[in-house]
Design a protein that fits this description.
The protein is an alpha/beta fold and 349 residues long. It contains twelve helices and 14 strands. The strands form three sheets. The protein has a ten-stranded mixed beta sheet. The chain binds S-adenosyl-L-homocysteine and iron/sulfur cluster.
Length: 349
Amino acid sequence: MAMKVLLTDLAWDQLTSWVESLGEPAYRAGQLFGWIYRSLVDDFNAMTNLPVSWRQQLADLGMIRSLRPLDTVVSDNGLTSKTLFELRDGQTIETVLMRYEGRRTVCISSQVGCAIGCPFCATGQSGFTRNLSTGEIVDQVLYFARQLKGEDLSVTNVVLMGMGEPLANHDAMWGAIEILNDRRGFGLGSRRFTVSTAGLVPGILRLAQERLSVGLAVSLHAADNALRDRLVPVNRRYPLSDLITACHQYAAHTGRRVTFEYALINEINDSPSQAEDLGQLLQGELCHVNLIPLNPTEECEYQPSSRARVLSFRRVLNRMAVPNTLRLERGMDIKAGCGQLRSRRRSGE
Ligand code: SAH
Ligand code: SF4
Protein backbone atom coordinates (compact mmCIF):
# COMPACT_ATOMS: atom_id res chain seq x y z
CA MET A 1 0.00 0.00 0.00
CA ALA A 2 1.24 3.48 -0.86
CA MET A 3 2.36 5.65 2.04
CA LYS A 4 -0.38 7.98 3.28
CA VAL A 5 -0.05 11.64 2.36
CA LEU A 6 0.94 13.78 5.34
CA LEU A 7 -1.45 16.70 4.91
CA THR A 8 0.73 19.12 6.87
CA ASP A 9 3.37 18.67 4.16
CA LEU A 10 1.03 20.56 1.84
CA ALA A 11 0.57 24.33 1.54
CA TRP A 12 -2.91 25.64 0.70
CA ASP A 13 -2.43 25.35 -3.09
CA GLN A 14 -0.96 21.87 -2.87
CA LEU A 15 -3.76 20.73 -0.58
CA THR A 16 -6.25 22.12 -3.07
CA SER A 17 -4.65 20.16 -5.94
CA TRP A 18 -4.67 17.02 -3.83
CA VAL A 19 -8.35 17.45 -2.93
CA GLU A 20 -9.21 18.04 -6.58
CA SER A 21 -7.24 14.97 -7.59
CA LEU A 22 -9.63 13.00 -5.38
CA GLY A 23 -12.56 14.41 -7.37
CA GLU A 24 -13.71 16.83 -4.66
CA PRO A 25 -14.42 20.55 -5.16
CA ALA A 26 -11.65 23.01 -4.25
CA TYR A 27 -13.59 24.54 -1.35
CA ARG A 28 -13.21 21.27 0.52
CA ALA A 29 -9.49 22.04 0.80
CA GLY A 30 -10.36 25.26 2.59
CA GLN A 31 -12.55 23.33 5.00
CA LEU A 32 -9.76 20.84 5.66
CA PHE A 33 -7.23 23.63 6.16
CA GLY A 34 -9.56 25.25 8.68
CA TRP A 35 -10.02 22.03 10.63
CA ILE A 36 -6.30 21.33 10.76
CA TYR A 37 -4.93 24.81 11.48
CA ARG A 38 -7.79 26.72 13.12
CA SER A 39 -9.74 24.06 14.97
CA LEU A 40 -6.52 22.07 15.49
CA VAL A 41 -8.39 18.84 14.91
CA ASP A 42 -6.28 15.73 14.31
CA ASP A 43 -9.02 13.23 13.59
CA PHE A 44 -10.89 13.20 10.28
CA ASN A 45 -14.02 11.98 12.04
CA ALA A 46 -14.27 15.23 13.98
CA MET A 47 -14.55 17.20 10.70
CA THR A 48 -18.30 17.32 10.92
CA ASN A 49 -19.01 19.48 7.88
CA LEU A 50 -17.36 16.95 5.56
CA PRO A 51 -19.44 14.10 4.17
CA VAL A 52 -18.94 10.89 6.16
CA SER A 53 -17.87 8.92 3.09
CA TRP A 54 -15.18 11.48 2.23
CA ARG A 55 -13.92 11.50 5.81
CA GLN A 56 -13.40 7.76 5.44
CA GLN A 57 -11.52 8.27 2.16
CA LEU A 58 -9.39 10.95 3.78
CA ALA A 59 -8.47 8.63 6.62
CA ASP A 60 -7.53 5.92 4.11
CA LEU A 61 -5.31 8.18 2.00
CA GLY A 62 -4.09 10.90 4.32
CA MET A 63 -2.85 11.57 7.81
CA ILE A 64 -2.54 14.65 10.03
CA ARG A 65 -0.11 13.53 12.71
CA SER A 66 3.39 12.36 11.88
CA LEU A 67 4.63 12.43 15.47
CA ARG A 68 4.11 10.03 18.34
CA PRO A 69 5.10 11.38 21.76
CA LEU A 70 7.38 8.92 23.55
CA ASP A 71 8.45 10.82 26.60
CA THR A 72 7.89 14.25 28.16
CA VAL A 73 9.92 15.89 30.89
CA VAL A 74 8.86 19.02 32.71
CA SER A 75 10.89 21.54 34.69
CA ASP A 76 10.91 25.12 35.97
CA ASN A 77 7.69 24.44 37.91
CA GLY A 78 5.95 23.33 34.77
CA LEU A 79 7.06 26.32 32.68
CA THR A 80 9.33 24.27 30.41
CA SER A 81 8.41 20.93 28.94
CA LYS A 82 10.26 18.88 26.44
CA THR A 83 8.85 16.04 24.38
CA LEU A 84 10.66 13.30 22.52
CA PHE A 85 8.71 12.28 19.40
CA GLU A 86 8.95 9.22 17.22
CA LEU A 87 8.62 9.86 13.50
CA ARG A 88 6.99 7.48 11.02
CA ASP A 89 10.31 5.78 10.26
CA GLY A 90 11.17 5.26 13.92
CA GLN A 91 13.63 8.18 14.13
CA THR A 92 13.30 10.52 17.08
CA ILE A 93 13.36 14.30 17.55
CA GLU A 94 12.80 16.71 20.42
CA THR A 95 10.60 19.75 20.82
CA VAL A 96 10.44 22.15 23.75
CA LEU A 97 7.60 24.36 24.95
CA MET A 98 8.61 27.36 27.07
CA ARG A 99 6.02 29.44 28.87
CA TYR A 100 6.73 33.00 29.82
CA GLU A 101 4.55 35.81 31.05
CA GLY A 102 2.16 36.32 28.12
CA ARG A 103 4.24 34.25 25.68
CA ARG A 104 4.42 30.60 24.70
CA THR A 105 7.41 29.67 22.57
CA VAL A 106 7.86 26.34 20.82
CA CYS A 107 11.45 25.40 20.05
CA ILE A 108 11.37 23.02 17.10
CA SER A 109 13.76 20.69 15.31
CA SER A 110 14.54 20.85 11.60
CA GLN A 111 16.64 17.69 11.13
CA VAL A 112 17.26 14.32 12.77
CA GLY A 113 20.78 14.96 14.04
CA CYS A 114 23.05 17.57 12.51
CA ALA A 115 26.05 17.40 10.19
CA ILE A 116 27.84 20.47 11.53
CA GLY A 117 29.23 18.77 14.60
CA CYS A 118 29.75 21.51 17.18
CA PRO A 119 31.62 19.73 19.98
CA PHE A 120 29.52 21.18 22.84
CA CYS A 121 26.18 20.18 21.26
CA ALA A 122 24.53 16.82 21.96
CA THR A 123 22.84 16.85 18.54
CA GLY A 124 26.10 17.61 16.78
CA GLN A 125 27.73 14.70 18.55
CA SER A 126 25.08 12.26 17.35
CA GLY A 127 25.80 12.95 13.67
CA PHE A 128 23.34 13.57 10.85
CA THR A 129 20.54 11.14 9.96
CA ARG A 130 18.06 12.98 7.75
CA ASN A 131 16.13 16.14 7.04
CA LEU A 132 12.63 16.58 8.42
CA SER A 133 9.81 17.17 5.96
CA THR A 134 7.71 20.33 6.08
CA GLY A 135 4.87 18.43 7.77
CA GLU A 136 7.16 16.98 10.41
CA ILE A 137 8.26 20.51 11.26
CA VAL A 138 4.69 21.89 11.23
CA ASP A 139 3.42 18.99 13.36
CA GLN A 140 5.73 19.89 16.24
CA VAL A 141 4.03 23.27 16.53
CA LEU A 142 0.53 21.82 16.12
CA TYR A 143 1.17 19.28 18.88
CA PHE A 144 1.79 22.02 21.42
CA ALA A 145 -0.89 24.28 19.97
CA ARG A 146 -3.44 21.51 20.63
CA GLN A 147 -2.15 21.08 24.14
CA LEU A 148 -2.34 24.82 24.86
CA LYS A 149 -5.79 25.07 23.34
CA GLY A 150 -7.07 22.92 26.18
CA GLU A 151 -6.02 25.77 28.49
CA ASP A 152 -7.44 28.46 26.20
CA LEU A 153 -3.91 29.48 25.26
CA SER A 154 -2.03 29.56 21.97
CA VAL A 155 1.50 29.35 20.60
CA THR A 156 2.85 32.89 20.28
CA ASN A 157 6.41 32.25 19.01
CA VAL A 158 8.25 29.57 17.09
CA VAL A 159 12.03 29.28 17.21
CA LEU A 160 14.04 26.91 15.01
CA MET A 161 16.55 26.19 17.74
CA GLY A 162 15.95 22.52 18.36
CA MET A 163 17.86 19.73 16.68
CA GLY A 164 19.47 20.36 13.33
CA GLU A 165 20.60 23.22 11.12
CA PRO A 166 17.49 24.83 9.59
CA LEU A 167 19.38 26.50 6.73
CA ALA A 168 20.73 23.09 5.67
CA ASN A 169 17.08 22.05 5.15
CA HIS A 170 15.93 25.34 3.72
CA ASP A 171 13.03 24.28 1.49
CA ALA A 172 11.24 22.14 4.06
CA MET A 173 11.89 24.65 6.85
CA TRP A 174 10.61 27.55 4.79
CA GLY A 175 7.59 25.54 3.66
CA ALA A 176 6.67 25.03 7.32
CA ILE A 177 6.96 28.76 8.07
CA GLU A 178 4.79 29.62 5.08
CA ILE A 179 2.11 27.14 6.16
CA LEU A 180 2.08 28.28 9.79
CA ASN A 181 1.99 31.91 8.66
CA ASP A 182 -0.95 31.40 6.27
CA ARG A 183 -3.79 33.60 7.55
CA ARG A 184 -6.41 31.21 6.29
CA GLY A 185 -5.13 28.77 8.90
CA PHE A 186 -2.74 29.04 11.82
CA GLY A 187 -1.89 32.66 10.99
CA LEU A 188 1.25 33.15 13.08
CA GLY A 189 2.85 36.47 12.05
CA SER A 190 6.27 36.34 10.37
CA ARG A 191 7.79 38.31 13.24
CA ARG A 192 6.92 35.48 15.56
CA PHE A 193 9.42 33.13 13.90
CA THR A 194 13.14 32.96 14.58
CA VAL A 195 15.56 30.89 12.52
CA SER A 196 18.80 29.99 14.27
CA THR A 197 21.83 29.09 12.19
CA ALA A 198 25.41 28.07 12.79
CA GLY A 199 26.26 30.55 10.03
CA LEU A 200 25.55 29.12 6.57
CA VAL A 201 26.22 32.29 4.60
CA PRO A 202 24.39 31.39 1.35
CA GLY A 203 21.38 30.34 3.45
CA ILE A 204 21.36 33.68 5.30
CA LEU A 205 21.45 35.56 2.00
CA ARG A 206 18.63 33.42 0.66
CA LEU A 207 16.60 33.96 3.82
CA ALA A 208 16.98 37.72 3.34
CA GLN A 209 15.27 37.38 -0.04
CA GLU A 210 12.25 35.40 1.20
CA ARG A 211 8.78 36.92 1.00
CA LEU A 212 8.39 37.11 4.79
CA SER A 213 11.02 38.53 7.10
CA VAL A 214 11.64 36.35 10.10
CA GLY A 215 14.01 36.80 13.02
CA LEU A 216 17.56 35.60 12.46
CA ALA A 217 19.74 34.23 15.25
CA VAL A 218 23.35 33.33 14.54
CA SER A 219 25.28 30.98 16.81
CA LEU A 220 28.54 32.85 17.08
CA HIS A 221 30.24 31.48 20.24
CA ALA A 222 33.63 32.95 19.27
CA ALA A 223 34.87 36.20 17.77
CA ASP A 224 38.08 34.86 16.26
CA ASN A 225 38.36 32.37 13.42
CA ALA A 226 40.80 29.98 15.08
CA LEU A 227 38.50 29.34 18.03
CA ARG A 228 35.31 29.40 15.99
CA ASP A 229 36.78 26.82 13.58
CA ARG A 230 36.82 24.49 16.58
CA LEU A 231 33.54 25.44 18.25
CA VAL A 232 31.39 25.81 15.12
CA PRO A 233 33.26 23.83 12.44
CA VAL A 234 31.27 25.30 9.53
CA ASN A 235 33.32 28.45 10.21
CA ARG A 236 36.09 26.86 8.14
CA ARG A 237 33.85 27.23 5.11
CA TYR A 238 32.24 30.57 6.04
CA PRO A 239 34.68 32.56 8.15
CA LEU A 240 33.67 35.43 10.41
CA SER A 241 34.18 38.28 7.94
CA ASP A 242 31.80 36.64 5.41
CA LEU A 243 29.34 35.78 8.15
CA ILE A 244 29.18 39.29 9.58
CA THR A 245 28.80 40.76 6.09
CA ALA A 246 25.86 38.42 5.44
CA CYS A 247 24.28 39.37 8.78
CA HIS A 248 24.75 43.03 7.96
CA GLN A 249 22.95 42.49 4.66
CA TYR A 250 20.18 40.60 6.44
CA ALA A 251 19.64 43.46 8.88
CA ALA A 252 19.79 46.06 6.11
CA HIS A 253 17.37 44.16 3.90
CA THR A 254 14.81 43.23 6.54
CA GLY A 255 15.27 46.10 8.99
CA ARG A 256 15.50 43.49 11.72
CA ARG A 257 18.23 43.27 14.28
CA VAL A 258 20.20 40.02 14.19
CA THR A 259 20.62 38.06 17.41
CA PHE A 260 24.04 36.58 18.09
CA GLU A 261 24.03 33.57 20.39
CA TYR A 262 27.11 33.19 22.53
CA ALA A 263 27.35 30.15 24.82
CA LEU A 264 29.76 31.00 27.61
CA ILE A 265 32.20 28.12 28.05
CA ASN A 266 34.47 28.27 31.05
CA GLU A 267 37.99 29.40 30.13
CA ILE A 268 37.40 28.70 26.45
CA ASN A 269 35.61 31.76 25.05
CA ASP A 270 34.77 33.85 28.13
CA SER A 271 37.77 36.06 28.94
CA PRO A 272 37.51 39.87 29.04
CA SER A 273 39.77 40.13 25.97
CA GLN A 274 37.49 37.74 24.08
CA ALA A 275 34.58 40.00 25.08
CA GLU A 276 36.54 42.93 23.57
CA ASP A 277 37.03 40.97 20.36
CA LEU A 278 33.29 40.31 20.26
CA GLY A 279 32.54 43.98 20.84
CA GLN A 280 34.94 44.97 18.03
CA LEU A 281 33.47 42.44 15.64
CA LEU A 282 29.92 43.68 16.20
CA GLN A 283 30.69 47.39 16.44
CA GLY A 284 28.10 49.36 14.49
CA GLU A 285 25.94 46.33 13.63
CA LEU A 286 22.19 46.29 14.17
CA CYS A 287 22.31 43.38 16.57
CA HIS A 288 21.76 41.92 19.99
CA VAL A 289 23.93 39.42 21.85
CA ASN A 290 22.33 36.59 23.81
CA LEU A 291 24.72 35.21 26.38
CA ILE A 292 23.88 31.68 27.51
CA PRO A 293 25.94 29.78 30.06
CA LEU A 294 26.82 26.47 28.39
CA ASN A 295 24.52 23.57 29.15
CA PRO A 296 27.06 20.81 29.84
CA THR A 297 26.65 17.51 27.95
CA GLU A 298 27.99 14.06 28.69
CA GLU A 299 29.94 13.84 25.44
CA CYS A 300 32.07 16.90 26.07
CA GLU A 301 34.21 18.18 28.91
CA TYR A 302 33.35 21.87 28.47
CA GLN A 303 31.77 23.53 31.49
CA PRO A 304 29.61 26.64 31.85
CA SER A 305 31.46 29.82 32.77
CA SER A 306 31.65 30.71 36.42
CA ARG A 307 29.39 33.51 37.58
CA ALA A 308 32.36 35.85 38.02
CA ARG A 309 33.54 35.25 34.45
CA VAL A 310 30.02 35.79 33.09
CA LEU A 311 29.78 39.11 34.91
CA SER A 312 33.14 40.40 33.75
CA PHE A 313 32.37 39.34 30.16
CA ARG A 314 29.13 41.28 30.28
CA ARG A 315 30.81 44.30 31.82
CA VAL A 316 33.08 44.60 28.77
CA LEU A 317 30.15 44.34 26.36
CA ASN A 318 28.20 46.95 28.32
CA ARG A 319 31.18 49.29 28.29
CA MET A 320 31.43 48.88 24.52
CA ALA A 321 27.66 49.53 24.22
CA VAL A 322 26.93 46.16 22.65
CA PRO A 323 23.28 45.37 23.46
CA ASN A 324 23.17 42.07 25.30
CA THR A 325 21.12 39.91 27.62
CA LEU A 326 22.07 37.05 29.84
CA ARG A 327 19.56 34.41 28.95
CA LEU A 328 17.79 32.72 31.76
CA GLU A 329 18.79 29.12 31.30
CA ARG A 330 15.65 27.08 31.02
CA GLY A 331 15.34 23.41 31.74
CA MET A 332 18.92 22.67 32.81
CA ASP A 333 17.65 19.88 35.05
CA ILE A 334 15.73 18.15 32.25
CA LYS A 335 18.60 18.47 29.80
CA ALA A 336 16.48 20.76 27.66
CA GLY A 337 19.60 21.60 25.67
CA CYS A 338 19.42 20.63 22.07
CA GLY A 339 19.51 16.85 21.53
CA GLN A 340 20.13 15.91 25.11
CA LEU A 341 16.96 13.95 25.83
CA ARG A 342 17.41 11.96 22.66
CA SER A 343 21.01 11.06 23.37
CA ARG A 344 20.11 10.06 26.91
CA ARG A 345 17.47 7.68 25.64
CA ARG A 346 19.81 6.22 23.04
CA SER A 347 22.42 5.52 25.61
CA GLY A 348 19.76 3.78 27.73
CA GLU A 349 20.20 6.12 30.69
N1 SAH B 1 21.84 24.51 14.30
C1 SAH B 1 21.33 25.77 14.66
C2 SAH B 1 20.04 25.70 15.48
C3 SAH B 1 19.95 24.65 16.53
S1 SAH B 1 21.03 24.79 17.89
C4 SAH B 1 22.37 26.59 15.39
O1 SAH B 1 23.41 26.07 15.74
O2 SAH B 1 22.13 27.78 15.55
C5 SAH B 1 20.28 26.08 18.85
C6 SAH B 1 21.23 26.81 19.75
O3 SAH B 1 21.63 25.98 20.85
C7 SAH B 1 22.50 27.26 19.07
O4 SAH B 1 22.79 28.60 19.41
C8 SAH B 1 23.52 26.32 19.65
O5 SAH B 1 24.81 26.82 19.54
C9 SAH B 1 23.01 26.17 21.06
N2 SAH B 1 23.54 25.04 21.81
C10 SAH B 1 23.75 23.78 21.39
N3 SAH B 1 24.25 23.02 22.39
C11 SAH B 1 24.34 23.83 23.47
C12 SAH B 1 24.78 23.64 24.82
N4 SAH B 1 25.23 22.46 25.21
N5 SAH B 1 24.74 24.69 25.66
C13 SAH B 1 24.28 25.90 25.25
N6 SAH B 1 23.85 26.14 23.99
C14 SAH B 1 23.89 25.12 23.11
FE1 SF4 C 1 24.21 21.50 14.63
FE2 SF4 C 1 23.44 23.75 15.86
FE3 SF4 C 1 24.18 21.61 17.29
FE4 SF4 C 1 26.02 22.99 15.92
S1 SF4 C 1 24.77 23.74 17.64
S2 SF4 C 1 25.83 20.77 15.96
S3 SF4 C 1 24.86 23.57 14.13
S4 SF4 C 1 22.43 21.75 15.96
